[in-house]
Amino acid sequence: MRSAGALAGVLLAGLIAWPFAGPVWAFATVCIGVVFLLLRHVAILAALADWLRDPLAKPVPQGSGIWEEVLVGLYRFVRGRILHEQQLADDLVRFRNAGLALPDGVVLLDARGHIEWCNPIASQYFGLDEQRDLGQPLVNLVRHPDLVAYLERGEYAEPLTLRLTRGEGLVLSLAVIAYGEAQKLLLASDVTLAEKVETIRRDFVANVSHELKSPLTVVAGFLETLTDGGVKLDERRRQGYLEMMREHTLRMQRLVEDLLTLSALESGRGASDEALVDVPALLAGVRDEALALSAGRHRIELDAQGPDGLLASAQELRSAFGNLVSNAVRYTPAGGDIRLSWRRRGAQAVFAVADSGPGIEPRHLPRLTERFYRVDHSRSRETGGTGLGLAIVKHVMTRHQATLEIESEPGTGSTFSAVFPARRIQPLAEAAPAPSA
To answer: Which fold has domain 103-190?
Structure first.
């Protein structure tokens, strides 16, 4: 209507000019008005053409008449498009932030298996560069035959367990999720710890079964012999069989007790019954037990010049010290020396057990605190060891923020030291003493 009104105004101006200036000037007035209207449309078209070159960087040009409706429609369309793109950009940022925050590795693959995006965890797992490797085939960068076969097979119902050589034996569980047009989402989870736990569990079951099988076989065999009416046994042989059955039964009992102790230590975060322990009195009891176990076969000395009070669990402390001392008695040949000492080392307190036994080769030292690990299997069984003593000691030390130090040389003996931090050392006069056991 505005455009029609402008054209009508030009014609009306021509009609008004006709009576006063004649038909020529009337026609000229109409032509000038039409040219003016055309130039105005051309100017708006030029502004529109300039805006179309970069519609997101410039505002929509202004106009009137029919152009006003057209330009207002364009403005609304562009505004909606900008808001939509901004929303998509925000969604993409949120998706990337979520991918960056995931504890698992994430790799986006296109239909050809090329990398579209990966998060830093995936870069760490597979040794990828988040910028340089985009667009590269994943199988060219992670050259593992199991991964190549898994992706080529296209059956992703079951995850793939991938063992990588980089790092310290990294084990990954890979899951592939198909989406879009033949695109894939690769998720990589670190299951190294779970694999180690499962291996420990299998080894533990196998070791316990092995440790129980031998004494049970012996006891069962002797029981069968004793209950067989056709076998005549004199009293001496009968008593010998009963004594061997007793020894193997005690061995199984010690094994079960050590397993229960180790389980209790592993299930708790810290010592629950901590109190001020009279360490010299506790060590005197440990020495008496060592003398009874040795039965006069060793020279056992105690030098307790350290602090008299230690904040600890008396029961766990006695268990740890008792295991260290009993190991020294079991592995030191008859006539050897065993020295127990409780001293200060700077601000720390140290309980040490030094023996004159055969010593331990350096290759065994890092694994001594593993459950059922033995330097000499036959000798350990002969002395009645369960293979759990040092594992118990290690857990007790951990629960008391202490450390276990082992020094040994073949042929010169061994020294096992329990080192306690300064914050656990307190004089007995500060609190009522706790029972030593």
So the answer is: Beta-Lactamase (3.30.450)
